[in-house]
Amino acid sequence: MADTFSWHIANASGQLFHHVDMGCQEKRLVEKVCDIYDKILKLENLIPSTHVDTLFTQLVLTCIAPSPIDVSKLSKRVQEIRSNLIKLCGEAEGLLESHFSTIIGSNENPFNHLNIFPYYSNYLKLSQLEFTMLSNHFTGLPNQIAFIGSGPLPLTSIMLASYHLRTTFFHNYDIDSLANSKALRLVSSHPDLSKRMFFHTADIMNVTNNLKEYEVVFLAALVGMSKEQKAQVIDHLGKHMAPGALLVLRSANGARAFLYPVIDPCDLQEFEVLSVYHPTDEIINSVIIARKYPMPIDLLNPRNGSIILPGKCSEIQHFNPLNHGSEIEEFAIDEKLS
């Protein structure tokens, strides 16, 4: 798909035309997103229905097309629309998952009906992607994993436990007790997962000592709907996760940032960023893998020295002498997962 864009322009006039054209494309993209947003606002509610599903499908299809747009540079009005749209998407996603969790859980063997969820194949690919990335940085298999923001239909935990991490124990955290009860109903009849999947109703900001038990922590995309909230959650995890534990985060890139919050690597102060992947197919979320530093940064760097890491962020980052410069691994656009 990348070949359809003029990434390589032979002369200066061609470059000028390319940039003007991309500017027009960005303008049309923003106009279309704002138009869909206006239609969503007119809905009576976001409960799954033909009309609701159609609008959000249009929004997703609009935003997943490859685009170089930088949402942080958009006007204040569009920034406000984006912020509101992310909240609406989060509400709609929660209602959709709750709706299908109820339907799937009403069957005698829920696991035989998971694929009726509209985005089942996306979760299948996303869990494969995240496992592949984790495998590059984790020796063996983790014994304990936490998934924060698991929701009523914890497909990522289910798929990782079923296909990739078949001996790992999964601790799923959600602030909504009803979501947890629906999720528990899905796995309670499964002879294996019922023994390896646990559900905790809690605000993760109130969870401290238990976080030290997990070798890997997943943070769902919609935990922390704003940049400030997301940064607070990440800071909390940085304070209480076990030294050396891995953090898997879901972010967004390009136009997909109209659907999900963007995680700035600058907010990962207590972590070393290991790899970043920006998909260009139907997988919507970018994935970031980071490792908590083995000891507090001030102890790693007692003289409080600092260097600037180009490409990570514009702010000064503490230097970690145990790893001379954090490498952010950007995967090629058309790379196929092995």
From TrEMBL:
Taxonomic placement: Eukaryota, Viridiplantae, Streptophyta, Embryophyta, Tracheophyta
Organism whose genome encodes this protein: Nyssa sinensis
The keyword S-adenosyl-L-methionine is assigned to this record: yes
Catalytic activity annotation: 3 S-adenosyl-L-methionine = nicotianamine + 3 S-methyl-5'-thioadenosine + 3 H(+)
Any GO molecular function: nicotianamine synthase activity
A Gene Ontology biological process term: nicotianamine biosynthetic process
Family per similarity comment: Belongs to the nicotianamine synthase (NAS)-like family.
Catalytic activity, EC: 2.5.1.43
Protein name, as recorded: Nicotianamine synthase
Domain of life according to the entry: Eukaryota
Keywords in alphabetical order: S-adenosyl-L-methionine, Transferase
Protein's job: Synthesizes nicotianamine, a polyamine which serves as a sensor for the physiological iron status within the plant, and/or might be involved in the transport of iron.
InterPro entries noted in UniProt: Nicotian_synth, SAM-dependent_MTases_sf
